[in-house]
Design brief:
Layout lengths: L2 E7 L4 E8 L3 H9 L1 H4 L10 E6 L6 E7 L5 E12 L3 E9 L11 E11 L2 E10 L2 H9 L2 H9 L2 H6 L1
Antiparallel strand pairs: 1-2, 2-8, 3-4, 4-5, 5-6, 6-7, 7-8
């Protein structure tokens, strides 16, 4: 399993997931840069993602939805704030209504995904920062650790195919 560490820090309002992959940084970057690859790993296995729009450039936007086992769709978006290909990108990640408009009733996290070479493979560090301890606790209660970990753990199968 690629995920090697998960840390929740309510004082600093962060959730940090660390994963190691047996693939070069450029290959892991492609997983996030290509919408068809991204949708294979963004949602957990029981909530597959469909990427509707994907513009991985500063100021760009990604719109997606995950489909639950019951067929219900859950929309979300990324608002891209910075890109340093192939080593990192930053974005706001939020929940959305069916038309991909931000849902102000649910938390938005500021995210920095960093990819560094490690022993011929890639160390990926995923840091999500929330505006309040309550917002972080809300997504923790929604199962974000389990969902994100199971989503990230799908990357090995994708890069092996």
């Amino acid at each position: 399993m690629p995920v090697i560490d998960v840390r929740q820090d309510l004082d600093n309002l962060t959730l940090t997931i660390t994963a190691d992959f047996a693939a070069p940084v450029e290959r892991i970057w492609q997983v996030y840069a290509d919408p068809r690859q991204l949708e294979k790993v963004w949602g957990p296995p029981s909530y597959p993602a469909t990427v509707v729009d994907h513009d991985l450039t500063p100021g760009g936007r990604t719109a997606y939805f995950m489909t639950g086992p019951d067929g219900e769709k859950y929309a979300g978006y990324w608002q891209i704030t910075a890109v340093d290909e192939p080593s990192s990108f930053s974005f706001a990640d939020g929940f959305a209504d069916p038309d991909f408009n931000p849902n102000p009733e649910l938390p938005v996290s500021e995210n920095v995904y960093t990819f560094t070479e490690r022993d011929g493979g890639t160390r990926a560090t995923y840091v999500s920062t929330f505006e309040s301890a309550e917002a972080l606790q809300q997504v923790l209660d929604m199962g974000v650790v389990e969902g994100a970990s199971s989503a990230i753990n799908q990357i090995d199968d994708l890069i092996a195919s």
